[in-house]
Amino acid sequence: MNNLKTAQERVFYQVYLPSFCDGNTDGLGDFQGLISKLDYLAELGIGGIWVTPFYPSPLVDNGYDISDHCAVDPRFGTLALFDELIAACHQRDILLVIDVVINHVSDQHPWFQAALSQPGSPFRDFFFFREQTNNWTSFFGGSAWTQEPGGKASYYHKFSPQQVCLNWSQPAVEREIKKIFDFWIARGVDGFRFDVINFLTTDGIGEDHPPAETGAEPPHEKDINQPGVLDVVKRLCRHIRAQGEFLLIGEVGSEVLPVMAPYQGAELLDVVFNFNLGSQKHFDITAIFAEMQAMEATLPGLPTLFFSSHDMSRMISRFGESSRDVPRAVAVFALQMTARGLPFIFQGEEIGMTDFVPQNLQQMRDIQGITQYHTAISQGMDEEQALTYALPFCRDASRLPVPWTPAINSEGQINVAAESKCSHSIFGAYKQLIALRNTHPALQRGRYEYLTLFKQCLIFRRFLKGECLEVMINFGATVVNVGYGDGNPVLFGADEPLLEKNQILIKKVNHENTQK
Predict the structure, then answer these.
(1) Which pTM was predicted?
(2) Which among 99, 251, 270, 349 is annotated as catalytic?
(3) How far apart are CA 232 and CA 431, in angstroms?
(4) Residue 125 a catalytic site member
(5) What is the mean pLDDT of residues 476-491?
(6) For the chain, what is the domain count?
(7) How buried is residue 249: exposed, middle or buried, by Cβ count under 10 Å (0-12/13-18/19+)?
(8) In a shared domain, residues 320 and 195
């Protein structure tokens, strides 16, 4: 078992299971495929894996609509194969963190099916049924209320109608969810990633939202971050930690640091995903620097460092690069590996994968994109206009399968002839930078001595006990004279006093007053 103290010494890798590696040639990623790539991940330097939902699901929302929280979807494997995955990870000193979705369940879940079919069932109270609804809206578009089949009441859902929200004001819901954590703890997992944890409906259904301006997104003032959420999170964290040391990660649906910060702390989650940094739509080192400063000033603990995930466009595409345009991608990753925080790599980043862009509705798989497409059609747009409207909402961009053949062979070696699909240069740089972080405690746990932006050159110094490292990354077009000809050993980059565009210099420096 490991908590944040040891977790922060590791680089984490997100596996979006359906598209990571197909181990049984049925066209879908699975546990067998993941197990087959553990040596590759260990060689890359990965110390922890976060794997997305693998539970039985109708796959309305790519597995985030769960019909059984204590089982494995046969498409991904079996419980026995999951146990094999846990053992194989631990043999390689890799932690395994799994997704838990406790805001909602699939409409095919036995709890909801009982609530529909048995009017007197205690499971009716697990959900919200109302004959008089309010104006709350779904985050996927449209009303958050859907009429139950054959009945007069409507049920509440923050996402698709097939993702039915749980009523966290009912103690029985919390008791059942704790049993889910117990089940996976008994199987040996090392931590949990709490999906949309600030969306839990703990204080019931309130009044209408204020009306939105014409054409504006409806506000979500009363349906998320309800006052009772933090108490629930504390109780869940306390329950889990009573059984050992686990890494507890929160997805807080916000880009506002003061909204995210309260979910992180000694009695709460170890870290939360900082979308203020990770989801920036365009590359802007000034904005990135500002967010790094804000995280240091606002968060009560360690920040997270990520620029891609299964829910967003890939960094290398979003920041205006391509798989052949190596320098900036490497520079951003150097920042990720050297800045203070817990780093997460999304599968395929290390080989320069770029976005998949659906060309029509038939190529879309993501429920959010599909819903927005149909909304646009209902508003009078033609198919081309509807596609253009829906694409910013569609999360298929980063979910294309990793091209293991021919780009990467079974030993995890890059096939240089497959340069059209991945970049040998990016892979090599990722491996070097991960190794650098893994071997220097100052990059794992060190504090900043200073953090500054000079022109477009990010410069900071991190120290821990007797080790002090200087990091300089120039993201600008102008050559920057950093003035270092001091002979201190260079760990990465060229020992030159001038940094041209996208050049990186990481070196040891003397630090007479290093804190003990």
Answers:
(1) 0.89
(2) 251
(3) 40
(4) no
(5) 77
(6) 3
(7) buried
(8) yes
